[in-house]
Amino acid sequence: MKGNMNNMMKQMQKMQKKMMKAQEELHEMTFEASAGGGMVTVTANGKKEIVDVKIEEDVVDPDDVEMLQDLVLAATNDVLKQVDDKTNDTMGQFTKGLPGGMF
Fold first, then answer.
1. What is the rounded CA–CA span in Å between residue 12 and residue 62?
2. Which residues, including other chains, have CB under 8 Å from residue 43's CB and lie 6 or more apart?
3. What are the pLDDT digits (tens) for 44-89?
4. What distance in Å separates the CA atoms of residue 23 and residue 61, rounded to the nearest whole number?
5. Which residue segments constitute the domains of the chain, with CATH numbers given?
6. Are 68 and 55 in contact (CB under 8 A)?
7. Distance between CA 11 and CA 20 in Å, rounded?
8. Given phi > 0 = left and psi -120 to 50 = alpha, else beta, which region is 40?
9. Running DSSP on this structure, what letter comes out for residue 57?
10. Which of 17, 52, 75, 101 could form a disulfide with 95 if both were Cys (CB 3.0 to 4.6 A apart)?
11. Cα atoms in the 13 Å half-sphere on the side-chain side of 49
12. What is the per-residue pLDDT for 94?
């Protein structure tokens, strides 16, 4: 009985190390999304931090600030969804079969 428990603990520690490595790799990734045919581009890292926003000069129209705001929102929401999807794909492999999952 004790041998099984030790074996199970070793397996859990192995899985925990793999999870931590996967999470570190995920945090180092960058994701990019654009809106308006590339007029606005937003870059985020795997920690869901926005690290860059590029706005093409042609889309800056003082008479239509709302359009620019909409493009920035669309690109930001898209890039954050990409991070969420990749996180779920990457970390989901560790939580399959667990009640309620962990992420």
1. 57
2. 30, 31, 32, 50, 51, 52, 53, 54, 79
3. 999 999 999 999 999 999 999 999 999 999 999 999 999 999 999 9
4. 41
5. 25-93 (3.30.1310.10)
6. yes
7. 14
8. beta
9. G
10. 101
11. 7
12. 81
32's enclosing H/E stretch is: strand 30-35
Q: Are 28 and 45 in contact (CB under 8 A)?
A: yes
The secondary structure element, H or E, covering residue 84 is helix 65-95
Compute CA distances 70 → 7, 29, 59, 65, 101, whole Å: 54, 26, 11, 9, 34
- Strand bridging mode 40-45 / 50-55: antiparallel
The amino acid at residue 43 is: T
Token digits for 61?
């129209």
Of 8-17, 18-27, 53-62, least confident by mean pLDDT is 8-17
Check residue 4 and give its pLDDT.
Answer: 84
Side chain identity at residue 14, one-letter code: K
Pairing outcome for strands 30-35 and 50-55:
unpaired
